[in-house]
Specification:
- With 205 residues, the protein is α/β, with parallel strands linked by helices.
- It has one domain (3-116, 125-204): 3 Solenoid (UDP N-Acetylglucosamine Acyltransferase, domain 1).
- Helix content is 20%, strand content 30%.
- The protein has two helices and 22 strands.
- It has helices at 7-28, 186-204; strands at residues 32-33, 38-39, 43-44, 50-52, 57-58, 63-66, 76-78, 83-84, 89-92, 95-98, 103-104, 109-111, 113-115, 128-130, 132-135, 140-141, 146-147, 152-153, 158-159, 164-165, 173-176, 181-185.
- The chain has an eight-stranded mixed β-sheet with strand order 2-5-8-11-16-19-21-22. A six-stranded parallel β-sheet has the order 1-4-7-10-15-18, with no helix packed on it.
- The radius of gyration is 20 Å and the shape is globular.
- The termini are far apart.
């Protein structure tokens, strides 16, 4: 007996149902969201400060985390057709804005603010330095990347796994390292990878 055919019944269907129930409850509590969003076991607060487009997928452990204070506007704005892998955190005191059709790997941290720091300063007792973060469209952010205050990424950027992004980069940048630096244009890097793969295949023939 092939038990694999029962997988949707026990795994996919219940998760989809819970996603719909969660989304309904969050909308009732103030979340602004379009259609066909999938919210797995995620955590949110201050739902009225969060806006989702449509057809976004947020997987287990993601957090949408506006500052826990009253605010009439939107602190986290997410467009449409984005995919967030496990444990992505958006930590917003000012505003985090994400465009359309982006992919986020697991364990990514994005924040628009810093703690005040310096000699004799207790970070927990001082006001935050609040800024903003903007990520354009069709970007690919690798696993465990960190994106910090006042960073803006243009469309089609690629951020390598583990990069710490402390400054803005233009459209098509390939960004790696700590602190992150640009190593080229996404289209040229893609072409180089393609050529190398073709040469390897030719050598193996």
């Amino acid at each position: 007996m092939n038990l694999a055919r029962f997988e949707p019944l026990f795994v996919r269907i219940p998760r989809g149902l819970m996603s719909r129930l969660r989304l309904f409850a969050y909308k009732c509590l103030g979340l602004k969201a379009g259609t066909q969003n999938r919210l797995e076991s995620i955590r949110c607060r201050r739902l009225a400060q969060i806006q989702l487009g449509q057809n976004n997928s947020l997987t287990d452990g993601c957090r949408l985390w506006p500052e826990d204070t009253p605010f009439d506007g939107i602190r986290i704005s997410i467009g449409s057709n984005n995919y967030f892998n496990r444990n992505v955190m958006l930590d917003a005191c000012g505003r985090i804005e994400i465009g359309d059709s982006n992919m986020f790997g697991p364990d990514i941290y994005i924040t628009d603010s810093n703690h005040t720091a310096g000699p004799g300063v207790k970070p927990g007792n001082e006001p935050m330095q609040v800024g903003r973060v903007r990520i354009g469209n069709s970007c690919w952010i690798g696993a465990k990347a960190v994106i910090l205050k006042d960073v803006e990424l243009g469309d089609h950027c690629v951020v390598g796994a583990g990069a710490v992004v402390t400054k803005s980069f233009p459209t098509g940048s390939v960004i790696v390292g700590v602190p992150a630096r640009c190593i080229g244009d996404a289209s040229s890097v893609a072409s180089s990878v393609l050529e190398n793969n073709l040469f390897k295949r030719a050598d193996s023939c």
